[in-house]
Specification:
single chain; 769 residues; Transferase(Phosphotransferase), domain 1; Jelly Rolls; five-stranded antiparallel β-sheet; four-stranded antiparallel β-sheet; 20 helices; 35 strands
């Protein structure tokens, strides 16, 4: 959000201007200046509340229309980017929900600069477009539409639309549109997940894995008599019947043909192997099938056999007291580190009295536990033994002997120790000294919080100002330590309905302890304001490093340094299932040592499935956010790709080159067409293309390798992420800082423009702040 250490939701400051630019009056110079200002403008956030599917108050409209009216509406929405790729059912629901509005001559339907929440299609009449009090050439008339950006969020209108004659419009409001699209997406995902969960070989998939698969399942229609799969052909696709009936034939002489219908499935072995089809399946009626191919499954989750084995290991690790101090991501890493061993009948798997160095999970088989040559118990599939051998030279207290062939997952002490030690570098301070933690040492996820009194803090300067309040530099009277104090007015929070988001921001920041994430040390509150005591990061914004009087963008090595640090911060958040959702250089500060620090967690949210909230900065929005179809943490990888592009090119790839028209920006995002400057690093170009993939299931970072896929990309070759995390590398640029209270890297603010409005909040929404 500007130079405020953490966002106050919007920024009203003017775009930066080059100090050495000669102000020419010729048209070419004016256009160049306009483009420059567009690229240098501090970008404000947008926010629209998520859709509440439980709301009984919402009732979808059903406004009757003639066939001619229906045809006109369907033509208009089919050619508008906002409605791109909607199903026929969604388009029909939108068409039937549109109200019919009579308009009189001279009436302004929308007014430039005002916020709006309606989209319009013209059935009858003529309309004039006026921008900055200038009438634009041409007229809007029958079949034309306008105001579509209002369906996404309450952006200021870009023009005034004046009615010139008696007219009739069709109108659609934002709440109705977002509800229709979000509900359709949620119902589709639920339908797919329920279908997948009925398949025996998929019953052990987790809810999160089913959520990810839902994005890659596609629906296909078949007419009666069409062959869906042919006996003997290569099997790569698994099918679930959404509607209709199919006939399964050619199973062999001993098997009769049979039918499958809605809710049934076939071809599931394709997810395990590519073996030839064992039968032919033909549509008996009109059929709709949901299809999932093995390649998509493998790229998202990995081979099914490995996924199921890993899930089993993870369930067991979650139940063992030894591992209870490990977080979710650490257990996942451990679960993937087991090797596989087979023991035949009579084999002694572990022997009483030996020094143990391995831990075992029984995948299949049976074994007996023997103590002093007496059988004391049995072990079966899903049990485990020998876990204490992972900590020290534990003497085996019993023997375990296979009574049936046993297939076991095995983890040895050396691997276990190596993983824990590497986790310390890969994830951060939380994993420090994990072996001691596992042996019983006290553990705290984050460092001790401060316990200062509000009266201990002396104001020094104002660092920034926004909608909710301001951020000030303060100093502790006793220790002389300096902090950034973010003050938020309750009246503004309540007026903007941001109570839940403010509490959520505090909760996420207090749990986050990472070198490249802004620290929240303490909170305060009174009857009028909430306060967050934050780290004071003195180097200013990454935005100011990218956009200077000398030029835009930074050299490749510098972009790589900042990109690697921000990637580590995003990866850390994702281990906690936190989506950041507001990536941009304005939200990254540079510390005194030149390292990046991610700030502003006002839009961050724990997401395990999908969220239907629209938030972020227009140029950085992923397509799934623009189209309001629900999103997950993959939006952060898209935004990371935008950031890499802006660092290299000096501007974002989907910006409006003629100004700040947000309709143009959204259209550019949905189209996804990328153009790169000639000097753009080739490896970085390849990485950006993989990050800016409109298909969520194919986007780098959202695949089975997660953030490691990005770290292993050729562009990051030679980048030592461990040394970076420990701040052992020399930063490519150091900010000029004179003292611990130096604020010269921030825009000057001489006056606190937030006047006491007399508001006193008597609610309890902030009781946990």
């Amino acid at each position: 959000m500007g130079n405020c250490c953490s966002s106050l939701v919007s920024d009203s400051r003017q775009p930066l201007k080059r100090n050495d630019k000669n102000q020419s009056n010729n048209n070419a110079q004016k256009k160049e200046d306009k483009i420059e200002l567009a690229f240098k403008a501090k970008r404000a956030n947008i926010f629209t509340e998520g859709v509440d599917f439980s709301r009984e108050a919402f009732s979808q409209k059903n406004v009757q229309k003639t066939d001619k009216q229906k045809h006109l509406i369907m033509n208009a929405i089919s050619t508008n980017y906002i409605f791109a790729n909607l199903s026929d059912q969604d388009k029909n629901n939108i068409m039937m929900s549109m109200d019919i509005v009579d308009v009189s001559p001279g009436e302004n339907i929308i007014t430039q600069g005002q916020e709006g929440d309606y989209f319009y299609i013209i059935e009858k009449g003529n309309f004039t477009v006026i921008v900055d009090n200038t009438i634009k050439p041409g007229k809007l008339n029958e079949g034309n539409s306008f105001g579509e950006l209002a369906l996404l969020y309450n952006a200021p209108r870009q023009a005034t639309i004046r009615c010139d004659s008696e007219a009739i419009l069709f109108s659609l409001d934002r709440e109705t549109y977002r509800y229709i699209i979000a509900q359709s997406s949620a119902v589709r995902d639920l339908e797919i997940k329920q279908a997948l969960s009925k398949v025996p070989i998929l019953t052990d998939l987790t809810e999160e894995q089913l959520d990810r698969l839902a994005d890659t399942v596609e629906t296909f229609p078949y007419k009666p008599g069409e062959v869906i799969i042919k006996k003997g052909s290569e099997g790569n696709v698994f099918y679930m019947i959404k509607e209709g009936t199919v006939v399964v034939s050619e199973l062999g002489a001993q098997y009769a043909d049979h039918t499958l219908t809605t809710g049934d499935y076939f071809g599931e072995r394709a997810l395990l192997t590519g073996e030839p089809r064992a039968a032919t399946v033909t549509a008996k009626t009109d059929v709709k099938v949901m299809a999932l191919d093995r390649l998509s499954f493998d790229s998202l989750l990995g081979p099914l056999k490995d996924v199921l084995d890993n899930n089993m290991n993870l369930r067991i690790l979650n139940s063992i007291k030894l591992f209870e101090k490990l977080n979710k991501n650490e257990r996942k890493i451990l679960a993937k580190s087991f090797t596989f061993e087979t023991f035949t009948i009579g084999t002694i798997i572990i022997k009483q009295g030996d020094i143990g160095r391995k831990f075992y999970i029984m995948k299949d088989g049976e074994a007996k536990v023997v103590v002093d040559e007496k059988e004391v118990s049995k072990l079966a599939t899903g049990t485990y033994f020998g876990e204490m051998a992972l900590l020290d030279d534990d003497v085996r207290k019993a023997s375990v002997i296979a009574t049936k062939t046993c297939e076991c997952f095995v983890l040895d002490r050396e691997t276990f120790s190596r993983i824990l030690n590497s986790l310390q570098h890969a994830i951060g301070k939380e994993t420090k000294n994990r072996l001691e933690v596992l042996k019983g040492a006290a553990h705290d996820d984050i460092e001790q919080q401060l316990n200062l009194k509000f009266t201990d803090l002396t104001p020094i300067a104002i660092l920034g100002s926004g909608t909710f309040g301001r951020v000030s530099l303060v100093q502790d009277k006793k220790s002389k330590a300096v902090y950034a104090l973010k003050a938020m007015m309750k009246s503004e929070i309540v007026a903007h309905k941001q109570q839940a988001n403010v509490i959520n921001e505090k909760d996420i920041m207090i749990k986050s302890n990472h070198p490249f994430i802004l620290r929240l040390y303490q909170t305060f509150k009174d009857s009028k304001k909430l306060y967050m005591l934050l780290e004071f990061i003195q180097g200013g914004e990454l935005f100011s490093v990218l956009h200077t009087a000398q030029g835009d963008g930074v050299p490749d090595h510098q972009a790589k340094f900042y990109g690697a640090g921000i990637l580590l911060a995003i990866g850390y958040l994702h281990t906690k299932d936190i989506a950041y959702r507001d990536m941009k250089p304005e939200n990254c500060l540079i510390d005194k040592n030149g390292y990046p620090k991610l700030v502003d967690f006002g839009f961050a949210k724990v997401i395990t499935g999908k969220s239907y909230t629209l938030c972020g900065t227009p140029e950085y929005l992923a397509p799934e956010l623009v189209l309001a179809r629900g999103h997950n943490k993959a939006v952060d990888y898209w935004a990371f790709g935008i950031l890499l592009y802006e660092m290299q090119a000096g501007y974002s790839p989907f910006a409006d080159p003629q100004g700040m028209d947000q309709v143009v920006i959204c259209k550019n995002i949905v189209s996804g067409r990328l153009a790169f400057p000639r000097a753009f690093n080739n490896d970085c170009k390849d990485l950006v293309k993989k990050l800016l993939n409109k298909e969520i299931q194919a986007r780098l970072g959202n695949l089975k390798g997660g953030v490691e896929d990005i770290k292993n990309h050729p562009w990051f070759t030679g980048q030592d992420f461990n040394d970076l995390l420990q701040k052992k590398l020399k930063a490519p640029w150091l900010p000029k800082i004179g003292s611990v209270t130096d604020t010269s890297n921030f825009d000057p603010y001489g006056v606190d423009d937030h006047i006491d409005d007399g508001y006193v909040d008597h609610g309890t929404w902030d009781k946990d702040f």
